[in-house]
Write a structure and sequence with these properties.
With 127 residues, this protein is mainly β. Helix content is 3%, strand content 48%. The protein has one helix and eleven strands, in the order E-E-E-E-E-E-E-E-E-H-E-E. Strands 2, 4, 5, 6, 9, 10 and 11 form a seven-stranded mixed β-sheet that branches. It has a four-stranded antiparallel β-sheet with strand order 1-3-8-7, with no helix packed on it.
């Protein structure tokens, strides 16, 4: 059974930092491309960042580029999202997702590309 378990969310002041983790089990993690999405109250889910199975390619949304960094440790079966210079508009539930099909910029940004999803972790940024 595939499980993606997010952690690291919480309450932080604007300008602060958080690091999210997503621990995977039940899948061959090193074969999977991973991503983070987020959903704010009353809004659609949106793409945040993605990373290829090898770690060699990453994509970011324009809203987080330069502030967030996605990384992975295949030995630990974990993907991370380092979030710096947080803003109140970053407040959302953050989800990690996994896909084992071909990785491309056209696909990575779409939620429909990903087969497996975690339950999410809440990130709240106060002003």
């Amino acid at each position: 059974q595939v499980q993606l378990l997010e952690s690291g969310g919480g309450l932080v002041q604007a300008g602060g930092s958080l690091r999210l983790s997503c621990a995977a089990s039940g899948l061959a993690f090193s074969n999977y491309n991973m991503a983070w999405f987020r959903q704010a109250p009353g809004k659609d889910r949106e793409f945040v960042a993605a990373i290829k199975w090898s770690g060699s390619i990453t994509y970011y949304s324009d809203s987080v580029k330069g502030r967030f960094t996605i990384s992975r440790d295949n030995a630990k079966k974990t993907v991370y999202l380092q979030m710096d210079t947080l803003k109140p508009e970053d407040t959302a539930v953050y989800y990690c997702a996994a896909a084992d099909s071909v990785f491309s910029s056209a696909r990575a940004y779409s939620g429909s590309y990903y087969h497996h999803w975690g339950q999410g972790t809440q990130v709240t940024v106060s002003s």
